[in-house]
Amino acid sequence: MREPLRIAVAGLGTVGVGVLRVLRDNAALIRARAGRALQVVAVSARHRGRDRGVDIADLTWCDDVLDLADLAGVDAVVELIGGDDGPAKALTEAAIAAGKPVVTANKALLAVHGTDLARAAERAGVTLAYEAAVAGGVPIVKALREGLGANRIGRVHGILNGTCNYILTEMRETGRDFDAVLAEAQALGYAEADPGTDIDGIDAAHKLAILTSLAFGTVVNFGAVYVAGIRRIGALDIAYAGELGYRIKLLGIARETADGIEQRVHPCMVPERSPIAAVDGVFNAVVVDGDFVERTVFEGQGAGQGPTASAVVADLIDLAAGRRPPTFGIPATALREATWAPMSGHVGPYYVRLQVYDRPGVIADISAILRDEAISIESLLQRGRSASEAVPVVLISHEAEEAAMRRAFGRIGELESVLEPPRLIRIETL
Amino acid sequence: MREPLRIAVAGLGTVGVGVLRVLRDNAALIRARAGRALQVVAVSARHRGRDRGVDIADLTWCDDVLDLADLAGVDAVVELIGGDDGPAKALTEAAIAAGKPVVTANKALLAVHGTDLARAAERAGVTLAYEAAVAGGVPIVKALREGLGANRIGRVHGILNGTCNYILTEMRETGRDFDAVLAEAQALGYAEADPGTDIDGIDAAHKLAILTSLAFGTVVNFGAVYVAGIRRIGALDIAYAGELGYRIKLLGIARETADGIEQRVHPCMVPERSPIAAVDGVFNAVVVDGDFVERTVFEGQGAGQGPTASAVVADLIDLAAGRRPPTFGIPATALREATWAPMSGHVGPYYVRLQVYDRPGVIADISAILRDEAISIESLLQRGRSASEAVPVVLISHEAEEAAMRRAFGRIGELESVLEPPRLIRIETL
How many CA atoms lie within 13 A of A393 on its CB side? Predict the structure, then answer.
């Protein structure tokens, strides 16, 4: 049996403690699978004394997390600090510079600085691994990088944020509105006190930017991801979706189009019989379409201590066993600059909900604007009638161009009879 | 760029031709992912001249497939002959003996001789890889061996045979009986002319035996798999399942129990809202429960040229890139002999359908036998009434022991009022 892999762990929050627990509880089987022991030798965190339920008394403690990079007797650094800058980035860069492989769960860091970090790691001849950064316990990074490596990927899409999926599932099951469900999710710990990163789609976009690079061999370009979150999804939209045979999911979608690679995160209506529609609660799912393998689906817990730690330790096992694939599946120097398809050119069917005063001529006004933009209507639903209050009007368009939709509904939103900005949700048949 | 990996392919049926096509069509991206080119240099098949739609004129041809093992200039052998003995086994052994890694899609060979072959490969210091042997394009072997490697696995289960799943799906959707749907599946090429390996559960059992070894670190023990196929599933059973909120699926299940490791393949009733119930047609799905990652689900095409070839080439990319994990995830010498839980000790709820003559006392006779075996009934359904013809009686038991069920329904089957052997289907809540 070879020497142990000696590990330094930076950050002892939920995931860091999880990593220590996995390595302790499953030490024997991990040793068998890695061909050597995995041994945590050093840690750094904000507070030394805190009781975390795992014993760190025998480990080297560093007050300054950056010291882990240069610590003698450390073979690999696990970065669990988080954030796309600051100590997480500094530690990752320092470890790479010191010739030490890095395992991270940090999606923001990879999404923003992934290409540069991958190139630095490659120059230094060290591995940068991040299975835990995307879809928690689901080994989707490995699947795209290795398991499906024979394929030209046409599209990757999925439910990449468990908080949003939990909120949308709760809204559907209880009929409540967004704010009430968010407040409950926060009380239950399923959503952060500051929920913006999740519910505004940023977290999902970080993950999508990473998946795009893995799938298409492109540089990581978080800035090119179109992002919209779920704040404007109302109980009414959820109800209409059900009535129309759809479910609303926050999806991340990356695909090759005639205009370049499209990366987008936004609420979608998906047919309720599609596999992804059935993925509820905090579960994540990723669907990959490859030219030979056709469609594969990967599903599991997207976050949480156990699943995330499982992914971190899988990367450590690979490292210990000497399996050191390129960061994004191909040499970092070969990652190509892509043409990024602008969202304005996206074509698809749309659901639109308007709140209108039910006055004579309002539908005629709306229809005229849509005609001017050559947008054709598949169906139009106007339920209640009220002379004094606004009533919902729901439109389903045929395939239409995003730019035309925006122009049309910009103008429609300004009509005197239309009460609030139209709510557009893209329909994805996938 | 390093030297190409030079490959010999044995067998040019559907999958062999698929491998040639993948390596030709996606050569550039495969080279980028492997860090070197993958080049087929030699082939062997039954008929040299046949037009396969791929050009083999420039490749070395061997009339005797065993010659591939010793051919100079070959770095790796791909075995696509099939069968658990004969030339497939001989070639695999010869290649290993010659120090050449083997990639195979041969589930029967691995299920029957997996432990011995893994040990031989380990002694010779060569890789034996077989992603294509289980669930086609779904990278489940890699997931169990590497991606979920941090976990103690509690259970693996799944739909492992696309032919059976197609037949059961068709039966449900059309209401037709088994024989009619099988005949149609044969006409469409979804079932073999000799369908026994698929519909009697053998193929699924081969795959399960492999998954068990990967999940539990045990020797491969196909002989310890309890196997029952789908021939005795009737249109009536499918209809009753639907009525009771279940779907019938042929599942392979391996799990750790107090009596040892249980391996079984048989038709199951699964709740229609469970994820696996929604996996229809030729799709395969594997569900893994790990102690930290919790539940993960993998789904995709279980067979067919593209998906199977995709898996073979993924193994070749790993080989070319120098990633050479142990055959069953841990050193072959460490694979443990397990206690194998006997099926007779299995405990769970059962669905039983009887055809009975509706005579006074028949239900009393049945109930008395069940009472003698301490089997408690959750529900009993007797629909039609007929003095002259047999009518179906459907029983759902509470948790009961397999041995008691067999004894009871052996006796019940001998009752004069009971027309044919009772049909038992285990209910799995999973």
Answer: 28
